[in-house]
Amino acid sequence: MKYLIFGVILAFCTTAYAANDSRSVRSPDGVIVILGDSRQKVLDAFRRDRPISVNNYFLDDGRVYGRATDYVYQVDNSNYTITVLRERVYRISWERR
To answer: Which of 48, 46, 29, 42 is nearest to 83 (CA)?
Structure first.
């Protein structure tokens, strides 16, 4: 019984910090970036804003692999992480601040 309660509490804690995936993000200039757009469109859409961070790494999630880059931008009151894989937007996730 203790393990069941511990498991439920752990599940709630994990979901509280999970990021949400999205199909698109609107830049402060009004340009919409969607999945599949090019890296250059992301950089053009956010040309006035510098990313909070840029992270390069090798992505291998079982379906796809390759060198990926995460760009983190703050839009309104949320942080958007735009993952670019093979020069295309692969994932857009956000979390509230």
So the answer is: 42
Question: Which amino acid appears at position 21 of this protein?
Answer: D
Full set of structural domains in the chain with CATH: 22-96 (3.30.1450)
Residues 6+ apart with CB under 8 A from 77: 96, 97
What's the pLDDT tens digit per position in 34-73?
999 999 999 999 999 899 999 999 999 888 899 999 999 9
Residue 87 identity: E
d(CA 82, CA 45): 12
Strand 20-22 and strand 88-96: pairing?
Answer: antiparallel
- E strands, the chain, are 20-22, 24-26, 32-34, 53-60, 65-75, 78-85, 88-96
